[in-house]
């Protein structure tokens, strides 16, 4: 290995910089692969970490790392790691096989499926943590080697609504269209639906300037760790009813327009559609919005005025996160945030802006280069004849060989095992058994498949359902690139060799493409793949053609679009937007969903038909108290928890899911802090411990989504989707909460959470 490998954290899109080096004392030998689901993933590692790590100075993290980053190297030689292909036998047990046999079985399964059902019966589900090279080649592999249109990825669960809103407003989607450091000088920051203090802690230092100016404004139904930064004069916390963020944003726009706070010169010079927007917000005066959201009218007016004042003084920024986007009207809600920003003249301004906070490590790059059902590399539309012709030329194939659009993630998962659906599925970088909405139905779909292949480094809950598990490299064992939340392309560098039986996904795709007699060429070398990606993206919205490994290795900042011969684009929209006329577009939006009738009332019935609410707030069938469930993250865990639940220190700190519930709501049901509770609806039931807190609204409960089985929050979430983006409804589910079975004990809950 190379001492002092400069790389980036394997977790979130902040992509904190770190340096990896050999420990002073040699690491212990004898890593034991886990070939059975019964292995204990959270026992203390028997070997010391293979690498030492240190935070590295970089604009996003400035040398800092969160707990997840500091402990990430412990997974490289975790005793639960899968280090050879595992085939499920007739008895349901996974046993090791050789790579040749594994590839032969996959090839036979693909050929049999295509012969019997057609090419679209083979599906691919990717991930936002894959490198740009793997994401690009996965899209190419699906469309050319497998011949299928059925590819999508878990970024559909994260960024799709914000991306759709950015495309229709600006003509281009890049999470933050400015460097993160620009936030440092802001006097006002409105943050909607994001708890960065826990999800990406080093981000918080970029909020300090706004907090010092009393201008940090956080919108969240919980008093999250980020919302707590607004105390002591730091700003404002707006605590709306779940699912009412769109109405709140319309109310803010109403105040900006009717109090003369809008930037008239900017609107006239740089936007289109203003008159229609004015009409669309006319009925959302603050007092009415208060009745819909529970946010006092005075706070609504104060927020609008602070944003306008900040844009004139030190700069104002509006940032959105998953809390306002993971809804069936998520695209419209993100659009309303953009409309508000445009009214104030923020996007493309020198010291102000609008952005959305990408979550997954390569959530930005992962959605640009071909994993999405409707896109080709470079952020090209798969239905665009010019885009198809360009890709056909790069790949050296007839355009007719490139399939058309497929199914977005939720619809793809619903099709699993169905007569006209996907019968053979590849999963890369995702754990859909835990992370997908209506998880019970997803697991049933996985079990209905004829053949399931999962590439992973642990026996995740999805891998446990697989017919064949393929062990793949972890972050510190591979070369490649990722694109962080700013649209900055970064180098991932290999610090050590993987275990002997582990292969890169690029290697796997290359060997399978050969076995399937795929047209075009495939490569296991990351730099070779990136060179092809450069050509594929050239001329597209996400143009990487001017970026190469050499410049990244020199430490040059590379923000896309970066056409060949340019110097890249750290700040977008300074002169014009990406629409043909150069203007940003106001799009009028209104809430689609019927909201709760009052700020303090019980939640209205959702689409499950779970029951009716009586006058006392209890279910008509005695099922418990009707509450609105929101889901989210904990500081110690990441995504489905497949990795972080295996880190002993993180698992010890947060060993189980806990339901955050207001003391008044708990008292009504006789629930005490630490009691086991049941949370249920028509889709499933979850059992966990109650955590009483006044930080959450009385009609709302919060459950983290990192845990499986008995504590899986996504057993309860709905597979309804935004009609524009395909985003699932993760942040608004009606549930019944009641005391749980007394027989459940802490050990049983912890075992379920660690599995």
Characterise this structure.
With 755 residues, the protein is of the alpha/beta class. Helices cover 28% and strands 17% of the residues. Strands 5-4-18-17-16-6-7 form a seven-stranded mixed sheet, with helices on one face. Helix 2 packs across helix 18 (505-515), helix 7 packs antiparallel against helix 10 and helix 10 packs across helix 11. The longest helix has 19 residues, at 99-117. The radius of gyration is 25 Å and the shape is globular. Mean pLDDT is 91; it is low at 27-46, 594-621 and 743-755.
Going across the biggest sheet, name each strand in turn: 5-4-18-17-16-6-7
Cα-atom radius of gyration: 25 Å
Number of H/I helices: 23
Number of strands: 29
Distance between the termini: 33 Å
């Amino acid at each position: 290995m190379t001492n002092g490998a400069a790389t980036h954290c394997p977790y979130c899109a902040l992509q904190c910089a770190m340096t990896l080096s050999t420990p002073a004392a040699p690491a212990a030998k004898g890593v034991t692969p886990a070939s059975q689901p019964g292995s204990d993933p959270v026992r203390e590692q028997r070997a010391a970490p293979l690498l030492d790590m240190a935070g590295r100075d970089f604009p996003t993290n400035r040398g800092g790392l969160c707990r997840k980053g500091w402990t990430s190297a412990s997974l490289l030689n975790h005793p639960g790691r899968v280090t050879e292909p595992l085939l499920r036998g007739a008895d349901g047990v996974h046993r090791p096989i050789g790579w040749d046999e594994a590839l032969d079985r996959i090839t036979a399964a693909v050929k049999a499926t295509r012969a019997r059902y057609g090419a679209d019966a083979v599906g691919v589900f990717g991930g936002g943590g894959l490198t740009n090279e793997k994401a690009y080649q996965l899209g190419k592999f699906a469309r050319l080697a497998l011949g299928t249109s059925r590819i999508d990825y878990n970024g559909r669960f994260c960024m799709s609504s914000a991306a759709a809103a950015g495309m229709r407003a600006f003509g281009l989607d890049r999470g933050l269209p400015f460097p993160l450091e620009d936030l440092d000088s802001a006097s006002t920051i409105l943050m909607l639906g994001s708890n960065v203090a826990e999800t990406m802690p080093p981000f918080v230092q970029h909020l300090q300037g706004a907090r010092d100016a009393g201008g940090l404004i956080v919108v969240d139904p919980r008093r999250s760790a980020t919302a707590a930064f607004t105390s002591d004069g730091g700003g404002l916390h707006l605590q709306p009813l779940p699912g009412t963020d769109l109405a709140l944003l319309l109310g803010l726009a109403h105040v900006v327009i009717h109090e003369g706070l809008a930037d008239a010169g900017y609107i006239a010079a740089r936007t289109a559609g203003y008159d229609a927007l004015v009409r669309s917000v006319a009925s959302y005066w603050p007092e009415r919005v208060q009745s819909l959201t529970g946010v006092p009218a005075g706070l609504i007016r104060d927020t609008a005025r602070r944003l306008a004042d900040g844009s004139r003084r030190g700069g104002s920024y509006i940032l959105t996160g998953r809390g306002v986007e993971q809804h069936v009207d998520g695209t419209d809600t993100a659009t309303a945030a953009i409309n508000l920003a445009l009214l104030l003249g923020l996007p493309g301004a020198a010291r102000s802006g609008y952005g959305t906070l990408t979550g997954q490590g390569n959530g930005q790059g992962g959605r640009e280069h071909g994993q999405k059902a409707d896109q080709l590399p470079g952020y090209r539309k798969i239905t665009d004849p010019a885009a198809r012709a360009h890709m056909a030329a790069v790949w050296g194939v007839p355009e007719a060989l490139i399939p058309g659009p497929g199914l977005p993630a939720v619809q793809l998962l619903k099709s699993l095992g169905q007569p006209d659906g996907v019968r053979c599925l590849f999963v890369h970088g995702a754990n859909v058994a835990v992370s997908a909405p209506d998880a019970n139905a997803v697991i049933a779909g996985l079990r209905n498949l004829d053949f399931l292949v999962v590439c992973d480094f642990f026996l995740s809950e999805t891998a446990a359902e697989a017919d064949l598990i393929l062990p793949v490299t972890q972050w510190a064992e591979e070369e490649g690139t990722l694109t962080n939340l700013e649209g900055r392309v970064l180098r991932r560098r290999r610090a050590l060799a993987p275990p002997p039986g582990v292969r890169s996904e690029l290697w796997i795709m290359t060997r399978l493409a050969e076995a399937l007699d795929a047209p075009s060429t495939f490569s296991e070398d990351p730099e070779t793949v990136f060179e092809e990606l450069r050509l594929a993206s050239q001329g597209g919205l996400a143009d990487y053609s001017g970026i190469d490994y050499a410049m990244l290795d020199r430490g040059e900042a590379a923000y896309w679009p970066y056409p060949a011969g340019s110097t890249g684009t750290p700040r977008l929209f300074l002169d014009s937007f990406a629409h043909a006329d150069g203007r940003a577009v106001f799009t009028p939006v209104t809430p689609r969903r019927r909201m709760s009738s009052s700020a303090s009332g019980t939640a209205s019935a959702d689409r499950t038909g779970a029951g009716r609410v009586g006058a006392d707030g209890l279910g008509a069938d005695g099922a418990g108290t009707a509450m609105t469930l929101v889901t989210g993250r904990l500081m110690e865990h990441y995504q489905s928890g497949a990795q972080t639940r295996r880190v002993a220190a993180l698992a010890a700190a947060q060993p189980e899911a806990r339901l955050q519930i207001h003391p008044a709501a708990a008292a009504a049901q006789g629930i005490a802090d630490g009691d086991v509770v049941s949370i249920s609806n028509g889709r499933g039931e979850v059992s966990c411990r109650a955590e009483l807190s006044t930080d959450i609204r009385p009609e709302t409960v919060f459950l983290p989504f990192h845990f499986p089985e008995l504590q899986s929050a996504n057993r309860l979430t709905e597979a309804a989707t935004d009609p524009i983006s395909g985003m699932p409804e993760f942040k608004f589910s009606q549930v019944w909460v009641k005391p749980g079975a007394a027989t459940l004990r802490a050990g049983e809950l912890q075992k379920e959470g660690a599995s």
